[in-house]
Write a structure and sequence with these properties.
196 residues; eight-stranded antiparallel beta barrel; single chain; elongated
């Protein structure tokens, strides 16, 4: 239900803004360098990717609101602590690589510092769509269905080209098994987009 409400709100904002001046639509893609914090996972960043679309809605001379819809892939590896914490609950026989696919909805406020440079800040809600089952030998769910995080970064606006770098920090405990270990995502995102 919460997911449907978030998507409905995003569609409403985009459709109503499409009639306003200063409205642009675009596509984007790039790399994710992420990790999941917690003793159950290796303390290392791994590469993934993101692709999607964005809308720019001009609010004032220096302010633009930028909702996006992205497919985000997050990769991580479990540590030896994962086996000691969860072997009885999940009957794990091997440690595993974990791949998570999120439908992410960031809503960023862009502040135009200079003609080509904007600073970005805003919330992001991620809906877990795809997850590897190899971590879970019994097919149980280990990760919560949603991840709320905060993004901050900068974007270069060169004509219709957008080049950006962001840092995101997860605020939600992703562990859906128990409270033995807190799992939180964090990482960097770099990419390019084109506005039409």
């Amino acid at each position: 239900m919460k997911t449907k409400l978030v998507l409905l709100a995003l569609v409403t904002v985009i459709s109503s803004a499409s009639f306003a001046q200063g409205f642009k639509f675009g596509i984007k893609a790039g790399a994710n360098v992420t990790k999941i914090d917690g003793s159950s996972f290796k303390e290392e960043f791994k590469y993934g990717y993101h692709v999607g679309a964005f809308v720019e809605i001009k609010l004032a001379k220096k302010f633009v609101i930028q909702p996006e819809l992205l497919w985000n892939q997050i990769n991580t590896d479990t540590s030896s602590n994962f086996r000691s914490l969860y072997s009885n609950a999940l009957n794990l026989s091997t440690l595993s690589n974990v791949k998570l696919g999120y439908l992410s909805i960031p809503v960023l406020l862009n502040y135009k510092v200079a003609n080509i440079l904007s600073l970005q800040l805003g919330p992001q809600y991620g809906i877990l769509i795809d997850k590897t089952k190899t971590v879970l030998q019994n097919g149980k769910d280990a990760f919560k269905k949603g991840d709320f995080s905060v993004l901050g970064g900068a974007q270069l606006n060169i004509s219709s080209l957008r080049v950006y770098a962001r840092y995101n920090i997860g605020l939600t405990n992703l562990n859906d098994i128990d409270n033995k270990d807190k799992w939180k995502s964090q990482g960097f995102q770099v990419g390019v987009g084109v506005a039409f």
